[in-house]
Amino acid sequence: MENIVFTREADSVLREKLQHTAPEDVYVLVDNNTRNYCLETLTHFHFLKEHIITIPEGEHNKSLESAARIWNVLSEQGARRNSVLVNIGGGLITDIGGFAAACFKRGIRCINIPTTLLAQVDASVGGKTGVNFRGLKNEIGIFSIPECVIIDNRFLASLPERQILSGFAEMIKHALLTSEEAVDEILQADLTRMESAEFLALIEKSVAFKAGIVEADPTEKGIRKALNFGHTVGHAIESSAIERGWEWYHGDAVAYGMIVELYLSVRQSGLDSRYYEKIRKFIRGHYPVYKPVAEKEDLYNLMLHDKKNEQAGVNFTLLCSPGEFEINHYCEKTEIIEALSVL
Amino acid sequence: MENIVFTREADSVLREKLQHTAPEDVYVLVDNNTRNYCLETLTHFHFLKEHIITIPEGEHNKSLESAARIWNVLSEQGARRNSVLVNIGGGLITDIGGFAAACFKRGIRCINIPTTLLAQVDASVGGKTGVNFRGLKNEIGIFSIPECVIIDNRFLASLPERQILSGFAEMIKHALLTSEEAVDEILQADLTRMESAEFLALIEKSVAFKAGIVEADPTEKGIRKALNFGHTVGHAIESSAIERGWEWYHGDAVAYGMIVELYLSVRQSGLDSRYYEKIRKFIRGHYPVYKPVAEKEDLYNLMLHDKKNEQAGVNFTLLCSPGEFEINHYCEKTEIIEALSVL
């Protein structure tokens, strides 16, 4: 994680990084929000207007067409192999921007400035880039490590609470996979002071955990599957919610996915049930109330089709205790249906 | 180059490789020619009809749309991360197929079976993949090494002579960059027996030379620029020819590009002029007669815009003697215009 900088002065870090990478020209990728709110923190850079590319919000814009739009600008403006693309925004922006940079002239460098909590603790590390294709999430993409990631929690101050909670679900997950102490610490975090130095330290710990896992298994052949904790059920909930046109965030789905998978962990992997109770209480107390998005049977069928399962049946990452987990734990349909009842 | 197999039995090597990679399913990318002529050598594989993807010939089909067509089939047919794509064809097929495979679900494996001499001695090694974009060659693409490359010279037997000569220009280039002996050997090759074991040995030497260079500099930061020999002028000739709608092969352009750059080498880098004479004689004797495709001034301007020049002015790779070269050799406009007179 030597390419990730934790700071409360993104502007001066960016200046330093641009001096260091010495590109002939700099391009900037933003969405409408970051164009309005974040770019102004960096106005003294005098980015050329023609070099600022805006992709509107919305998962449907995470497309090959958006990538082609970026390539069009780069190509038209004469970007060269030593040009740099600065991606400022949530995971959508850093994912598309990372993909576009990696494929332009067989790879130009990019600098990511994630501005949502989810992008800071999750998308910032691991080199996953990509776009959706034919309705499938991240179907087209590659692994490509950005030149540098600048994490500045001052950008979080203006985010709506639900967006914060979405990223916070991943921090809970990282804590569960780290240690008992990490779990206690995360549940006591002050979510009203996102821009504090204390919260930046929590972000750093969370990212450090993920970075350690990713380093051990960059292409997700083994231990990196630990990071799927909460996501097997979470993705199914998220897909159902999207189908129904609900305003349901990734992190909301993961939070409830974790409740189900913690229950499975208690039943299958000997997890002490007080962790299940503790996390469940926290999630119920902070996250939007869970409304049944789909029949248990439908959620089960969605899990069967999750691309991360390499054979028929459903494999989970389960917890034995905080910091101890098993990947590829196969569960029977009846066990899964029972666990879904706790939602 | 441990991933490249030289053989006269592509079918049995492919069988072995597929056993080794053990994919859940296999996809095949071909063009109309290789679908008709080469696929039949491999019919006993019983590829599923729905898994065979055909991209028509023609540089304009080396597009993002063709890549999307491949992704469509892979996605529709439920290809998974451990699926394998077998690319059978010239450089167009192995370049698009390599790109499509590298970006599908962040990378599935591919096996390349290059069937033209150019693809065998050039595109087969180095991991360059890509598609054209906005009229620019290989503007979108990445470096990605195939699981395996199977080079079988029996596929060359049915190729028209001009296509053979196109690939042979790269072999001459590799020989010039290797040694005096390599130059003598290549000029004595029997081009009427492409399918012979002797010719396969020549291909192997040529590929080994390129592989050595690429290994030393995989991302083209330095010594790999040696491979641009003949190509700075060659690309300018090729672009002019395409603009005029001429039937002019890549290798024809490179052949005449080499004559000009050998002349520059004599003038600038002390190359013994008998190499210039020898190669010039061979090219004039074998390749189509050069017709002036453009004014010298226009060719010069095209070189200025070649993406491989990182600053204003034109840099060349020049030969001091066979096997000894200098990269980034800057030449003045007047010197270049003079050299173009030898065409």
Write the layout of secondary structure elements.
The structure is a homodimer of 343-residue chains.
Chain A (H helix, E strand, L loop, with lengths): L3 E4 L2 H12 L4 E5 L1 H6 L14 E3 L9 H13 L7 E6 L1 H13 L5 E6 L2 H7 L7 E3 L2 E5 L7 E5 L8 H18 L1 H8 L9 H20 L14 H13 L6 H20 L3 H14 L9 H9 L9 E8 L2 E8 L1 H8 L3
Describe this structure in words.
The structure is a homodimer of 343-residue chains. Chain A is 47% helix and 15% strand. Chain A is globular and about 60 Å long. In chain A, the strands form three sheets. Chain A has a six-stranded parallel beta sheet with strand order 1-8-5-4-2-3, with helices on both faces. Chain A has a two-stranded antiparallel ribbon with strand order 6-7. In chain A, helix 9 (231-243) crosses helix 12 (296-304) and helix 10 packs across helix 13 (333-340). By secondary structure, chain A is an alpha/beta fold.
Pair of chains with the largest interface and how many residues each contributes: A-B, 31 and 30 residues
Residue stretches of chain A low in confidence (pLDDT < 50, at least 5 long) are: none
Q: Which structural category fits the helices and strands of chain A?
A: alpha/beta
* Strand composition percent of chain A: 15-25%
Quaternary assembly: homodimer
**General form of chain A:** globular
- The chain-level mean pLDDT of chain A equals 92
Largest beta sheet of chain A, briefly?
Answer: 6 strands, parallel
Distance between the termini of chain A: 36 Å
Question: How many distinct helices of chain A?
Answer: 13
Order of strands in the sheet with most strands of chain A: 1-8-5-4-2-3
Element-by-element helix/strand order of chain A: EHEHEHEHEHEEEHHHHHHHEEH
Helix fraction of chain A by DSSP (H/I, runs of at least 4): 40-55%
Number of strands of chain A: 10
Radius of gyration over C-alpha positions of chain A, nearest whole angstrom: 20 Å
